[in-house]
Design a protein that fits this description.
mainly beta; 6-stranded antiparallel sheet
C-alpha cells in the first residue's frame, strides 16, 4: 500500500528532484488531491532535495510566476525556474493571471 500523500501547507518550500525548479506553497487545500510533481517526479522539501541538475532546454516554470490548479485551491510561487512542468494530482498547473489594477484617473 502506498504511503498517504502529505498535505502541502502554506510556507512549505519544495524543490524538484529532476531539475532546478523551486516553489513556495502560497495556498493549499485542506485535503491533498495528489502529489505536487515537477517533470513527472514528486517534489521534495527543499531542505531534503539533492543538488539541482543543469536545466535542459527552455524553462517551463518561470521565476516569479504563480501557478494554480483548475479548482484554484493550490497556489505555488516559483522561486527558481526549471525545465519541468508542474502538476498537482496528475493535472497540470497554469500560470495565474494578474489582477487588473483599478484605473487611476
Amino acid at each position: 500500500m502506498a504511503p498517504p500523500v502529505p498535505t502541502p501547507r502554506p510556507g512549505d518550500q519544495l524543490a524538484s528532484a529532476t531539475d532546478t525548479t523551486r516553489v513556495i506553497v502560497i495556498r493549499a487545500p485542506q485535503q491533498a488531491a495528489g502529489p505536487i510533481e515537477c517533470g513527472g517526479s514528486p517534489m521534495l522539501p527543499a531542505a531534503q532535495a539533492p543538488a539541482p541538475a543543469a536545466a535542459e532546454g527552455p524553462p517551463a516554470t518561470l521565476i516569479g510566476k504563480r501557478y494554480v490548479d483548475a479548482a484554484d485551491t493550490l497556489e505555488l510561487l516559483c522561486t527558481a525556474s526549471g525545465s519541468g512542468h508542474l502538476t498537482y494530482g496528475g493535472e497540470p498547473l497554469t500560470v495565474k493571471a494578474p489582477k487588473a489594477l483599478p484605473a487611476s484617473d
